[in-house]
TrEMBL record:
Leader sequence segment: 1-28
Domain of life: Eukaryota
Official protein name in the record: Netrin G1
BP-aspect Gene Ontology terms: animal organ morphogenesis; axonogenesis; tissue development
Keyword S-adenosyl-L-methionine: no
InterPro entries hit by this protein: EGF, Laminin/Netrin_ECM, Laminin_N, LE_dom, LMN_ATRN_NET-like_EGF
Residue ranges occupied by any EGF-like domain in the UniProt entry: 418-453
The organism of origin for this protein: Sarcophilus harrisii
Amino acid sequence: MYLSRFLSIHALWVTVSSVMQHYPSVWGHYDVCKTQIYTEEGKIWDYMACQPEATDMTKYLKVKLDPPDITCGDPPETFCAMGNPYMCNNECDASTPELAHPPELMFDFEGRHPSTFWQSATWKEYPKPLQVNITLSWSKTIELTDNIVITFESGRPDQMILEKSLDYGRTWQPYQYYATDCLDAFHMDPKSVKDLSQHTILEIICTEEYSTGYMTNSKIIHFEIKDRFAFFAGPRLRNMASLYGQLDTTKKLKDFFTITDLRIRLLRPATGEIFVDEQHLARYFYAISDIKVYGRCKCNLHATVCVFDNNKLSCECEHNTTGPDCGKCKKNYQGRPWSPGSYLPIPKGTANTCIPSISSIGNCECFGHSKRCSYIELLNTVICVSCKHNTRGQHCELCRLGYFRNASAQLDDENVCIANVCDNEFLHCQNGGTCHNNVKCQCPAGYTGILCEKLRCEEAGSCSSDSGHGARAQGSLTLLVALLGITGPHLF
Ligand SMILES: *[C@@H]1O[C@H](CO)[C@@H](O)[C@H](O)[C@H]1NC(C)=O
Ligand SMILES: *[C@@H]1O[C@H](CO)[C@@H](O)[C@H](O)[C@H]1NC(C)=O
Ligand SMILES: *[C@@H]1O[C@H](CO)[C@@H](O)[C@H](O)[C@H]1NC(C)=O
């Protein structure tokens, strides 16, 4: 028992090492997945996680405004300069291209002077709140890699919530609150990302950092991705391995930076004062010149390429995975549960390649001698486990030590491996054959078969009448023995 266990382990090891010789490129699989990084020396290849390059994701989104008719200019209206209620010579007219401010202008090329921007209607219905939802949808899970930056053309709003969805807009969670007075607006204590720590990084905060009045020059609002990364990777994001290690093990952290949609909820425009100047409501509106969202397709670390085809982003999955996010194993590759690849490279990380299903291996691969297969990560290969019927080997295609291949049996035959073929007590070689080392009957000329039980010419199908004589003679002998009532097990 112990011996046979030892033997099968030994056989396994032999198999593993011989397989290794056939798969020298296994280590190379992971190298397919490399990322381009920017260092002080320039752009270099980094052999890390298997993921697409980060890019400007605003090229791939759909934008939706609520209320739908909130964009200014239909009908045309005049608005005043924020800082000066008596400068009301600006006009918004949707039907005149130079005076129109459609939503697309939030995503166009920046750097033009004067800048182009989306603008809402003015707050003429005060005190009814002027609220606008700007929903950005990718129809694809994406992972944020840099700060979300929103540049306002007018003052930054007094109150705003950035929300995110991870399920294509079915449910929404707040990402960050922004207000000139967090306590008043949202009953939250004001905080900044710098007040957080590794342990509180997932906390949703209200910040007053970006909501100071329109008098200041700053027009920008951030959602700080990099400051959050820095809690793991260090202030200059030098230790990305530490961040990747965390992302590999903490799903919540990974999900925090993952979105399918973003929603900017503008709740109250900049007023710059405590009281709203009811005489000049045309001073109050929202205007956004730019939105930056940097990220990459989420491919669960199973793809380096994400394509935009038919207005849809999708990962070009490797490692025998499939789905828009490479979120499952391909058909016939479900030999173990799907799991994402890891950020860290070998030896700490793994590609978590999907492996062939047992059902697709079928009986043939283990020749019916085992129903269990095991995946050996190191070799990226599948081997049969606990081969029965005295077989061994990756496919149970070899005989265990002390057993020999039964030449007259097929590989899937239960009798393919046979113990000591002959001995002088029970298993006699027939027709005058002699037992050689208990392994082989040495047959006299004219006879063959494991126990010399067959006529050689019979096997070749060429028995002449002369050699057929011997067979007939044997037949008569059998008859004679039967008639005489003598039996001899050794005879046949
Ligand atoms: C904006 O979206 C929120 C849900 O995220 C919803 O409760 C609110 O009514 C929407 N506001 C407008 C103006 O559509
Ligand atoms: C399965 O994955 C391996 C490694 O990535 C690859 O070489 C092979 O072509 C894939 N097979 C299929 C059918 O996709
Ligand atoms: C060899 O295999 C054949 C075919 O299954 C079988 O009939 C025969 O008994 C086997 N020989 C021994 C010695 O088991």
